[in-house]
Design a protein that fits this description.
By secondary structure, the chain is α+β, with helices and mostly antiparallel strands. 26% of the residues lie in helices and 20% in strands.
């Protein structure tokens, strides 16, 4: 958040683009975008900016019934994102269902709620590329004609990008795919 630019001040006529009741004084960049363009920003008052951070007064956001109709995608995105976080409350659900937003706006808004999938070992410990793991059971290595005994140390693992249940590592100079449920981080 930073002070408001002249262009953004003109776009919002000096008024908060969410509540429309207080002067705008903060330039808020809607993640995951950056401040390289005014189209990624929303002009906020100190009250709305404070509420985004504290989440202490959900009823404050009933004002979003107006901003959901704003023509600026960044304002629609931030509005939808805030409403989505309160979607279990009837007023928020009603506002969200009152308008059909473009798919790109909804997708942008929901990026804040995406949870990156994490590779985890048998104990639930997060794994990262380059970690060292220990096998928790004997593994019959298919296609390599050997068995990797329990307790085998596998150094410098690589995470399989599209499958959080698999890692790659070298055992007996052969690169193999290992299920994460059979390893523990060393």
């Amino acid at each position: 958040m930073s002070s408001i630019s002249e262009k953004l001040k003109q776009r919002c006529d000096g008024t908060c683009e969410l509540c429309s009741s207080e002067p705008a004084s903060i330039e808020y960049v809607v993640s995951p975008k950056d401040n390289s363009s005014i189209e990624n920003e929303v002009a906020l008052c100190t009250t709305c900016a404070g509420e985004i951070e504290s989440k202490s007064n959900p009823s404050h956001w009933q004002c979003l019934a107006g901003s959901i109709w704003n023509t600026e995608p960044s304002v629609q995105t931030l509005t939808y994102r805030i409403l989505y976080s309160y979607r279990d409350q009837e007023w928020a659900s009603d506002i969200m269902s009152s308008v059909e937003l473009p798919e790109n706006v909804v997708n942008w808004a929901l990026t804040a709620f995406e949870v990156k999938e994490i590779h985890r070992d048998a104990n639930g410990t997060p794994l990262e590329n380059g970690d060292t793991v220990v096998l928790t059971q004997v593994l019959n290595v298919k296609g390599a004609n050997f068995m990797a005994p329990k307790g085998t140390i596998v150094r410098k693992i690589r995470l399989v990008p599209d499958n959080t249940e698999q890692i790659e590592g070298k055992v007996n100079d052969a690169t193999i795919v290992i299920l994460t449920k059979y390893v523990r981080k060393n």
